[in-house]
From TrEMBL:
Gene3D superfamilies in the cross-refs: Chloramphenicol acetyltransferase-like domain
InterPro entries: CAT-like_dom_sf (IPR023213), Sec_Metabolite_Acyltrans (IPR051283)
Name listed for the protein in its UniProt record: Acetyltransferase
Originating organism: Salix brachista
Source organism superkingdom: Eukaryota
Single GO molecular function: transferase activity
Alphabetical UniProt keywords: Transferase
Keyword check for Transferase: yes
The keyword Transferase is assigned to this record: yes
Length: 443
């Protein structure tokens, strides 16, 4: 790894085997993500002058991670498979306490300014994450969780790679926050994960879901995106409020949300800057959360995947000729259409055919794919060094058109990470309408 010095790699187990040999069946929402990459998110902290010495710090982090795994036991396990006589295979999490991977590394001579000040996300950031290039189904032999603590000259980057067939973004950040609580000396965590998943989604229907063995055997992890540039754009609470007001006024509506308005702004700008046919269909992929939409609702701390994908389809001409309100209202209509009955039908349908996604399939068929959420508690983790100053993501699941949503440091603001072709990003930066809503944070 460029400028990265690997200091140690070890496995960290939960302190107790109380759930060892427990089997957690993967649901249709989990299996949808079997053939893509892990969740890779990390936080950059200022290194306090009073920080304990290096060896004590790493020992303390490993100890607190071990205790956190007592609550998140599945993450210390591995995926397991059962091959059936009809040429199908089923997957489950074997809570065998095989352990999570812990990597200690140093980025010699790299400062926080080297990460935060460049206009584009520097490639070295991807080296702050372990298990790069590993797909979720490979966790039969690789950890479901790997963390990397990278020491910078004046900072600490804590990067987590977590299997996306085991958890979603909400579960990911619950783990991150819980680890920091244990590290600060708490005996209990504030949001205990609910590990039961199958019955909460599928009631009395018996597991497992069987997938054609050919899907796994023919899976190729050779998808290599064209060279991309990544940049994080900052949108203040005030600018977002202006977009929302404009969208609702144009659409004669009061139901368009802040996020829907911002996504419409992004979609319109990206469509303008790409050289596409005027009457070509273009798709926006959204993640629709299930926790509050199902009846009865899922527990907020449900530990697993609780999302389905929604697609907004428009012609490029419609996006370019109509205003912000039209596009935002179309996004609003799709999100609002996911009623409890529609979600129930979608879950029942995917029980029979989960249809695992692939990064190549998304990249070839989707104009923009929206991931993560500004509602995640990204800046909650505090290991005793204060709040993080920035969040960054790894290389997993990146392709032309990937948009990652984060809350900003200031309440109500959002940071939007674009992964697109260099020419698209340069064109966005020269698009006055798009950049008018962006706030440049001074170095």
């Amino acid at each position: 790894m460029e400028n990265i010095r690997l200091l140690s790699t070890s496995m960290v187990q939960a302190t107790t085997d109380k759930v060892k040999d427990v089997r957690i069946e993967l649901t249709q929402c989990d299996l949808k993500l079997l053939l893509v990459g892990a969740i890779q998110k990390g936080l950059l902290f200022i290194k306090p002058k009073s920080l304990e010495d290096q060896n004590s710090l790493i020992h303390h982090l490993k100890t607190s991670l071990s205790r956190t795994l007592d609550f998140f036991n599945p993450l210390a396990g591995r995926l397991a498979t059962v091959e059936h006589d009809d040429n199908t295979v089923s997957f489950f999490i074997d809570c065998n306490n095989a352990g999570a991977q812990f990597v200690h590394a140093a980025a010699d001579g790299v400062t926080m300014a080297d990460i935060l000040h460049p206009v584009y996300v520097p490639p070295i950031v991807h080296s702050f994450f372990p298990l790069n290039g590993v797909l979720n189904y490979e966790a039969v032999s690789k950890p479901l969780l790997a963390v990397q603590v990278t020491e910078l000259a004046d900072g600490i980057f804590v990067g987590c790679t977590m299997n996306h067939a085991a958890v979603d973004g909400t579960s990911f950040w619950n783990f991150f926050n819980s680890w920091s609580e244990i590290h600060r000396g708490l005996d209990q965590i504030s949001n205990t994960p609910v590990l039961e998943r199958w019955s909460l989604l599928n009631g009395s229907i018996s597991p497992p879901i069987r997938l054609p063995l050919s899907i796994i055997n023919n899976c190729s992890d050779a998808f290599i995106p064209t060279p991309l540039l990544e940049r994080v754009f900052h949108f203040t609470k005030g600018k977002i409020a202006m977009l929302k007001a404009k969208a609702n006024a144009e659409a004669a509506s009061t139901s368009i949300s802040s996020l829907q308005s911002l996504l419409a702004h992004i979609w319109r700008a990206t469509t303008r800057t790409r050289l596409v046919e005027h009457d070509k269909e273009t798709d926006l992929l959204l993640l629709i959360g299930l926790r509050t939409r199902l009846q009865p609702p899922l527990p907020g701390s449900y530990c697993g995947n609780a999302v389905v994908t929604g697609i907004v389809s428009l012609r490029t001409g419609e996006i370019l000729e109509h205003g912000l309100g039209f596009v935002a209202l179309e996004i609003n209509k799709v999100v609002s259409s996911y009623t409890k009955n529609k979600l129930k039908d979608a879950l029942e349908s995917s029980l029979k055919n989960p249809g695992p996604l692939t990064v190549a399939g998304i990249a070839c068929n989707i104009s923009l794919a929206i991931s993560s959420s500004p509602r995640h508690n990204v800046y909650g983790p505090d290991f005793g060094w204060g709040r993080a100053v920035a969040v960054r993501s790894g290389s997993a699941n990146k392709f032309d058109g990937k948009v990652t949503l984060f809350p900003g440091l200031e309440e109500g603001s959002m940071d939007i990470e674009f992964s697109v072709l260099p020419e698209t990003l340069k064109a966005l930066e020269n698009d006055l309408e798009f950049m008018d809503a962006v706030t440049i944070i001074s170095s």
